[in-house]
Amino acid sequence: MRPMRSKFSQTRRSVPSLNVASMPDLIFTVLFFFMIVTHMRSDEVKVRLQVPQGSEVQKLANKQAVVNIYIGHKGEAWHVQLNNDIVQPGDIPARIEEIRSGLSQENQQRLTVSLRVDKKAPMGLVSEVKRQLQQAYALKINYSATEIKK
């Protein structure tokens, strides 16, 4: 008499092992890639300002072509800060041209100036900054505000 075999055989299958020897190389390559490609830019704000609130706030899409101008007070006087440097309004056209020359042709046409102005800043100073921006042909201006929380 033959031994009875079940319909379902119980053979053990082995799971192939995963070779992880090259995993650290891969991780460091990806990390290095993102360190090279990512463009992080942050300004050190040297003036104090209280940004006004707005209800129709939108984020800028292409931040590579954005120049930040802060108008706020440092001590008792009002100052203008362009990116990381405190400047006089008359210096703005030359600085904008310097920044524009460092951008690609496509970003030169997309150049946007983001004005972050204290809500109590004198309008004469803001008007002077805008007039200097017109002289530098930096005509795309964005006013920064914080969104009103509902």
Summarize the structure.
This protein has helices at 23-37, 92-101, 105-110, 123-135, and strands at 53-54, 66-74, 77-82, 85-87, 112-117, 141-143, 146-147. By secondary structure, the protein is α/β, with parallel strands linked by helices. It has a domain at 53-147: Nucleotidyltransferase, domain 5.
Can you give a write-up of this model?
The structure is a single chain. The chain has 150 residues and is an alpha/beta fold. The protein has a domain of 95 residues: 2-Layer Sandwich (Nucleotidyltransferase, domain 5). 29% of the residues lie in helices and 21% in strands. It is built from 4 helices and 7 strands. The strands form 2 sheets. Strands 4-3-2-5-6 form a 5-stranded mixed sheet, with helices on one face. Strand 5, helix 4 and strand 6 form a beta-alpha-beta unit. The mean pLDDT is 83. GO terms for molecular function: transmembrane transporter activity. One of its GO terms (cellular component) is plasma membrane. It comes from Xylanibacter ruminicola (strain ATCC 19189 / DSM 19721 / CIP 105475 / JCM 8958 / 23).
